[in-house]
């Protein structure tokens, strides 16, 4: 099993705009479920305690293999979601592991 985790820092000129962008990202991530072969599980969430050091949104997906993760990365639905999310974020971190 391969686990893929992505965290984003979200743009926003003010707290309301940032919250709108967070909501849009969470909604966009929800569209991936059931549309990408090899995507076994998907969890996404918003960081609750607001802190400058904290990331705003996290995604955790599980895939049966590294090949399935690579197929997820190039899938058109993933590319569409990544384009939307990329426009709403200022930074991104990724960790992938097997186990």
Description:
By secondary structure, the chain is an alpha+beta fold. The chain has a single domain, classed as Alpha-Beta Plaits. The chain has 3 helices and 4 strands, in the order βαββααβ. Strands 2-3-1-4 form a 4-stranded antiparallel β-sheet. α1 packs antiparallel against α3. The longest helix is centred in the first third of the chain and has 16 residues. The protein starts with a strand and ends with a strand. The mean pLDDT is 96.
- Taken as a percent bin, the fraction of beta residues is 25-35%
- The whole-number mean of residue pLDDT values reads 96
CATH topology title: Alpha-Beta Plaits
CATH classification, class level: Alpha Beta
Helix/strand class: alpha+beta
Number of domains: 1
Q: Would you count the extended β strands for me?
A: 4
Name the helicity range: 25-40%
- Give the low-confidence spans: none
Order of neighbouring strands in the sheet with most strands: 2-3-1-4
Query: What CATH architecture do you see?
Result: 2-Layer Sandwich
Number of helices: 3
């Amino acid at each position: 099993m391969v686990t893929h985790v992505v965290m984003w820092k979200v743009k926003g000129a003010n707290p309301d705009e940032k919250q709108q962008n967070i909501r849009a990202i969470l909604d966009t991530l929800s569209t991936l479920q059931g549309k990408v072969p090899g995507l076994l599980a998907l969890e996404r969430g918003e960081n609750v305690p607001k802190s400058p050091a904290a990331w705003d949104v996290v995604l955790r997906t599980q895939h049966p293999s590294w090949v399935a993760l690579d197929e997820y990365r190039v899938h058109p639905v993933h590319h569409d979601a990544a384009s939307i999310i990329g426009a709403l974020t200022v930074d991104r971190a990724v960790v992938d592991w097997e186990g």
